């Protein structure tokens, strides 16, 4: 069964679960925001660059939603989401011009430093941002409809699922495009890419913008779901969780971010419920085991097995075609 069909079936099963058990809507939507953010981080991981500060784009988007909701009380939720994503994009345009010049640990640490500057400012500017208490968001209308809390959460679940499928399709399409292939070439041999006439700087910058926009969607949805925006959304711990999910799922396919998020949330919730004092240890142990057993993540292992089965089928067909049957004459 192909990935698009499996994705639609998974989205349908998630939707039915949310409608059958309303208490699962909040963890599902929050888990999907983590998956969307990891999807953005995986774009840069394709180039071999890991950002430890990409949560700042979720934070920028979330605070934009909060500020605009307060400034324009009648603003629709869809407008708020688009405004948050636009703010993330504009921030990435400026920040990306500087950070994409660097590679490896310098790229990761520079993003981390910038995110911590933002985190500190949000905590200190109490009169503007509410400090560590954050800003509350009055529940807005969604698509022009004013809803009660339960109906709003169900509608937000549907919207989040649709956005997840659309963003996954967009990112996977980018991976298969010429720009996406060039981005992957930066990881393998950047010098050869430059000799072929491509600008590695421009390719990295475009990938960085896409990455920030995708993460921006996660921040905007999280802000609406929680109804509260705090500096913790942009903390280095949150960025680390996004990287954790990316490594867990693998960056070989857009579906890796969602598989990683399922694994992350499952281990986190189960260990917090049964081993509340050891849940962080169990998360770290899970990551170590995945790195040793599945170095390319869940999706990498799946793709490896699928490729092996395809090769075996091709060999079997070749053997069948090469077999010559000699007719027997009476």
TrEMBL record:
<feature type="transmembrane region" description="Helical">
    <location>
        <begin position="105"/>
        <end position="126"/>
    </location>
</feature>
<dbReference type="InterPro" id="IPR043428">
    <property type="entry name" value="LivM-like"/>
</dbReference>
<dbReference type="GO" id="GO:0015658">
    <property type="term" value="F:branched-chain amino acid transmembrane transporter activity"/>
</dbReference>
<keyword id="KW-1003">Cell membrane</keyword>
<dbReference type="Pfam" id="PF02653">
    <property type="entry name" value="BPD_transp_2"/>
</dbReference>
<keyword id="KW-0472">Membrane</keyword>
<feature type="transmembrane region" description="Helical">
    <location>
        <begin position="281"/>
        <end position="303"/>
    </location>
</feature>
<keyword id="KW-0812">Transmembrane</keyword>
<dbReference type="InterPro" id="IPR001851">
    <property type="entry name" value="ABC_transp_permease"/>
</dbReference>
<feature type="transmembrane region" description="Helical">
    <location>
        <begin position="208"/>
        <end position="230"/>
    </location>
</feature>
<feature type="transmembrane region" description="Helical">
    <location>
        <begin position="77"/>
        <end position="99"/>
    </location>
</feature>
<feature type="transmembrane region" description="Helical">
    <location>
        <begin position="155"/>
        <end position="171"/>
    </location>
</feature>
<protein>
    <submittedName>
        <fullName>Branched-chain amino acid ABC transporter permease</fullName>
    </submittedName>
</protein>
<feature type="transmembrane region" description="Helical">
    <location>
        <begin position="242"/>
        <end position="261"/>
    </location>
</feature>
<keyword id="KW-1133">Transmembrane helix</keyword>
<feature type="transmembrane region" description="Helical">
    <location>
        <begin position="32"/>
        <end position="65"/>
    </location>
</feature>
<dbReference type="GO" id="GO:0005886">
    <property type="term" value="C:plasma membrane"/>
</dbReference>
